[in-house]
Amino acid sequence: MVNPSELTWHKDTAKLRERYRRDVPRLVRPRRVPPSRRIAKVTRELGGATAAWYLLDRRRGGAHSREALSRRLRIAFQSLGPTYIKLGQILSSGEGIFPEEVVSQFRLCRDRVPAEPFEIVRATIEAELAGPLESTFASFSMHPVAAASIAQVHEAVLVSGEEVVVKVQRPRVTDLVRHDLAVMSFLAPHLVGRIPVAALANPPALIELFAETIVEELDFRLEAASMLDLGRVLALTGQRSLIVPRPHPRLVTRRMLVMERLSGFAWDDVGGMKRAGIDTPKVLRSVVISFLEGALLYGVFHGDLHGGNLFVQEGGRVALLDHGITGRLDEPQRQAFLRLLVGGTTNDIGLQIEALRTLGAVPPDVPTEQVVRDLGLDKPAQDITLLSAEELTGQIRDLTKQLLSYGIRMPKELMLFVKDMLFLDGAVATMAPEIDLLGEVALIATYFAQHHAARIAAEVGVDVRTTPVDLDGLRASLGLSTETRELTYRELQQRRELLRSRLEGDGSSGDDK
Fold first, then answer.
1. FRET pair for 183, CA 20 to 30 Å: which of 175, 261, 414, 495?
2. Rg of the chain over all Cα atoms, to the nearest angstrom
3. Rounded to the nearest 10 degrees, what angle do helices 13-27 and 203-217 cross at?
4. 452-496 pLDDT, tens per residue?
5. Do the domain assignments include residue 320?
6. Below-50 pLDDT ranges, the chain
7. Are 283 and 431 in contact (CB under 8 A)?
8. How many domains is the chain partitioned into structurally?
9. Could you tell me whether strands 318-320 and 242-243 are parallel, antiparallel, or unpaired per DSSP bridges?
10. Residue 229, domain member (yes or no)
């Protein structure tokens, strides 16, 4: 149990979050002249990496070219320090958004960040405590259990005997982040229109999203408040299959966060979980349901799901860690997300497009009927694995061209949501490769009908208890015919690999991908 009124650091967190958000437009305002010394270093590192790839690796094309470029950029990011390492970590959790070579290379940014010397850690803690470390901690491990871009984490024992972990911010990181945001905001507008997909990715919006998340991450009081918010969602929904660590009632400051110590199986230790008798498909389903409940019903969700932020305890309960990036939706956005998901399970295309319009993905002056007609959303699903390489790449190019002509973009809130959903999609590969995906979607939809039908009906106007689940839209998005009744994740992976190999062998230059 946690009583927020007893938390000495908690009362002003809402005002702090609002103040930081108001500061973001100033931090990402396009500048005519960026910080000269910092942009010189950034240009040297990134320009050198790109030039080396262009001269040495580019001509080999395909996957080798992408892997080489990703590796060189990852090394440059690590050399540039905390801000770019954090950006690399975000890229690493973008399975399905970014190429596999990018994801696998930048995944190394999660666990290959050099730790700060213990003397610096001690100095930071004692400055935050305004007293010696030994007055608060009976023991404190000199070696971190994790070292990331913004902070590192140490195990400790309080003088009360409670086992905790202590998150300690790296020195001078705040000033460096602000200089780097100035450089990024200078470069981002120059990418718009340079690369076709950049218009969909919306580089200035990406930088704004990055600024919002990293600026809030620099104040650990906000992270602790997010832990309470997500814990509240678990309590309100009666969800006991997940747990959030409790922040200490007093030992939370801007640069130090003391919290309950949790442990368990690493997220990718599926063998260990199964040997312990843990039902891994059930574990994954619980995470998906809780994630959707938080986003769709309460407007708050963990914004950075990846394997390093999840433990599975002995009984199968999932410990959700690292709440520095938390998705927050205002009421119109939350209800739009709810309409989007309800429209997906009922195959109501119009409802989905209107929800995307509210979220800012579809411009207000583009008629829904035109989007449906031009994108062929009213046509029967086509098995895309039967297409030739030329037909497949032609469809992709036509779709991209059509989306660009509408001015469709990915809003920043949707980016976080989609990134998390893609992580959960990838987790199926190891935790539940044989489950029927279509049946699983129907099962989750049934859960929401049983537990939240009245609220959904009041907010969306659709009674999900009497409206049948229609998965034809999902089948169409996966390129399946309407006759397909079952699809395991293993079969889906095989289809994706077939498409990947077909695109790789279509004869196009590797530089165009």
1. 414
2. 24
3. 140
4. 999 999 999 989 888 888 887 777 777 777 778 888 888 887 877
5. no
6. 195-200, 507-513
7. yes
8. 2
9. parallel
10. no
